[in-house]
Write a structure and sequence with these properties.
By secondary structure, the chain is an alpha+beta fold. Helix content is 35%, strand content 23%.
Length: 208
């Protein structure tokens, strides 16, 4: 029993360290796409699709009011920093487009970084300012930095959509969600536009 107690005590610090996670909330257009981009990143523990930033209570995917599509990223700051996540996020979107993202138009698809602390706000603004000063984009950055508000997780239908084997009926016939997602992403021009804007700096499912 004494040996078991010693072994458990030795494991406790590591377990406590793992529990010391943080969250980042990004609105980058289609939440399926942002979830797909960030789940593979080292240090990211979980990515949840949802709605945030608005005033409507209990929004849904079909009735979202003035909310934006967004993701909540849970991450280990000992592996990946919040600032690095912001940096990757900015390079995964078109931060110069105020009217939506790629083929998805309207406020709900516009971009924002929702910050939970003064430190997150400073980091987000620092990243945006750095790219503004570099002058590599054709137009000014319009991505909003705003205080975090209630994050509403959307239904299971939308979680992990990009990798789901569940079959749905599309205009191309029955397809898995994963294959339907691939068709949508390509047709929407997300990766092509990101590559056009950022060149070698583009962050497209490739880590930070």
């Amino acid at each position: 029993m004494r040996i078991l107690t010693i072994m458990l005590a030795a494991l406790l610090p590591a377990a406590a360290a793992k529990a010391d996670t943080q969250t980042a909330v990004f609105a980058g257009g289609c939440f399926w796409c942002v979830e797909s981009d960030f789940e593979p990143v080292d240090g990211v523990i979980d990515v949840v699709s949802g709605l945030t930033g608005g005033t409507k209570e209990d929004p849904t995917y079909r009735s979202y009011g003035d909310h934006r599509e967004a993701v909540m990223i849970t991450f280990d700051p000992e592996i990946v920093s919040y600032e690095d996540l912001v940096d990757g996020f900015v390079r995964s979107i078109d931060p110069t487009d105020a009217g939506g993202q790629f083929c998805d138009r309207g406020f709900t698809y516009s971009t924002a970084i929702y910050t939970a602390t003064p430190e997150q706000e400073r980091a987000a603004k620092s990243v945006l300012s750095r790219y503004e000063q570099l002058g590599i984009l054709p137009d000014p950055i319009v991505t909003e930095v705003a205080p975090s508000s209630t994050f509403y997780k959307v239904g299971d239908y939308h979680q992990d959509y990009y990798k789901s084997d569940a079959v749905i009926i599309t205009r191309f016939g029955p397809l898995s969600k994963a294959n339907a997602y691939k068709r949508y992403r390509k047709a929407c021009g997300r990766d092509a536009r990101t590559q056009e804007l950022w060149g070698d700096r583009a962050f497209i499912k490739a880590g930070l």
